[in-house]
Design goal:
This protein is of the alpha+beta class. Helix content is 56%, strand content 17%. The strands form three sheets. The chain has a five-stranded antiparallel β-sheet with strand order 2-1-5-4-3, with helices on both faces. The chain has a five-stranded mixed β-sheet with strand order 7-9-10-12-11.
Length: 469
């Protein structure tokens, strides 16, 4: 049989419950036994003292066969269900409570027992009283003194079997109560173990489904405890895996599309040159197209490798102090051609003339290049681009804003995804965002800075931080 957690818990806690109740039962029985015997012992001592007072007079007068004493002993014998002996100062039994014990008259006690009584000490023992009793009994002895002189004693013997028999019903009820408690505890234990094990089985089954590639599986666990939290965490994990799988498929599809287009163009132009479809005088033009497409393939491949290396933590960072405003100006000059062709209005607002920052200048230039490239690419003709710097809490805030058609909040959250394609119906955004923004976010993250994107009805703004030098 499979060692399931349900079986292990049931056996483990079952053994604990049985052991606990067994110890409790033995302890209770022991306590009851001591309690009942102590009570009986006190009763025997009390009656022994009463008999001793009467026996003192009889022993003093030298008439142990007094009818009054014998009658009292017989009454107490029936009342206490115990045998009573009266002994003289020499330890000889001179009176008994039962007719069947008259055979003991004249027998003498062992010297050790008599010595204790002679010292004024009570005696107490369990057993057959040196073979003088026919069964194991509880014996108490009380000394008798007359005029401060030892005159004998009174011995009372109560059968231990009779004592236990009187309280057997209490023992039986106690045992039944313990057995019923064990059964109830086992029932509650079984329900609780099922409550724990069933959700775990469900989670295990769902994990196998997800391991098989079916990421749509979800759990519905409502236990109100840590297992429910585990189920919710499992659902979050499954949701994340489903999103990752969707992104992976989209990535593969996008890469395939972005690689297939230039490769198809290159192949078509080369085949045209080989089979003569493209005339000799047009070959240089189409070779330039082939070169551009080849460069595009190389760029995509390099960016993929670069992003992969960044995510694996192999990006080398060398932070140093440099002037930020001049770096931004150089990048603007690099995009002068595109800005001029689209007649864009560019504004650079600095909060101070010279701003020194502490960062990796090469990586930061890469960030500025990608963001400016996006701004120039997606800003419509005669639109505007604004670059603004400010300071807050020891950091420089750089904002790059370009005008254009609005982008939904859902699309804004996805612009960082590799090869994410914007809504094809949005004209200028249908080209998508490629790998540039994914690289930007990875660089900013490894520089321990933050970057966000926001948008409105007619603008998109990227905001990132740089540590002030």
């Amino acid at each position: 049989m499979k060692n399931s957690i349900q079986k292990k818990l049931f056996i483990t806690y079952g053994v604990v419950i049985i052991t606990g109740f067994a110890i409790l039962a033995l302890s209770l029985l022991r306590i009851f036994d001591q309690y009942f015997i102590e009570n009986r012992k006190e009763l025997l001592y009390e009656q022994g003292r009463k008999v001793a007072r009467e026996a003192a007079t009889v022993l003093y007068s030298g008439n142990p066969n007094s009818r009054s004493l014998i009658n009292d002993l017989q009454v107490l014998d029936r009342f206490l269900n115990a045998h009573i002996w009266v002994i003289n100062s020499e330890g000889i039994i001179v009176a008994v409570s039962g007719a069947n014990e008259e055979r003991l008259l004249g027998r003498q006690l062992r010297e050790g027992k008599l010595d204790s009584l002679a010292k004024g000490e009570s005696i107490e023992e369990r057993g057959d009283f040196d073979g003088m009793l026919g069964e194991s009994s509880l014996t108490v002895g009380y000394p008798v003194f007359v005029n401060n002189r030892f005159s004998g004693g009174v011995l009372v013997h109560a059968s231990l079997l009779e004592i236990q028999k009187n309280f057997r019903e209490i023992y039986r009820l106690t045992l039944w109560a313990i057995l019923i408690s064990v059964a109830i505890a086992y029932g509650i234990l079984y329900i609780q173990i099922r409550r724990i094990s069933e959700p775990l089985k469900e989670i295990s089954g769902a994990a196998k489904v997800i391991a098989g590639g079916e990421f749509h599986k979800r759990l519905n666990i409502n236990t109100g405890d840590e297992i429910e939290e585990l189920g919710n965490s499992f659902n979050n994990m499954a949701k994340s895996l489903e999103k990752i799988e969707e992104n992976r498929r989209n990535l593969i599809a996008n890469i395939s599309h972005d690689l297939r287009s230039p490769m198809t163009s290159i192949r078509g132009f080369i085949e045209g040159m080989i089979d003569g479809t493209i005339p000799e005088d047009k070959r240089e033009h189409y070779l330039n197209i082939v070169l551009d497409e080849s460069n595009r393939l190389i760029k995509i491949t390099n960016e993929l490798l670069e992003l992969s290396n960044m995510q694996q933590g192999s990006l080398e960072i060398k932070k140093e102090a440099f002037e930020l405003n001049e770096t931004i100006r150089r990048k603007l000059v690099a995009y002068e051609k595109g800005i001029t062709e689209k007649k864009l209005d560019v504004v650079f607002s600095m909060f101070e003339e010279k701003t020194f920052v502490l960062s990796d200048q090469i990586l930061l230039e890469r960030v500025l290049s990608n963001l400016m490239d996006n701004a120039v690419k997606f800003t419509p003709e005669k639109g505007s681009i604004e670059i603004r710097t400010s300071t807050k809490e020891g950091r420089i805030i750089v904002e790059i804003t370009n005008t254009g058609k609005s982008i939904s909040s859902e699309e804004l959250n996805r612009v960082w995804e590799r090869f994410y394609k914007g809504d094809a119906s949005r004209g200028l955004y249908k080209g998508g965002y490629g790998l540039g923004l994914a690289i930007v976010r990875e660089i900013i993250s490894q520089l321990d800075e933050n970057i966000t994107v926001s948008g409105g009805e007619d603008y998109v703004k990227f905001t990132f931080t740089i540590k002030k030098a």
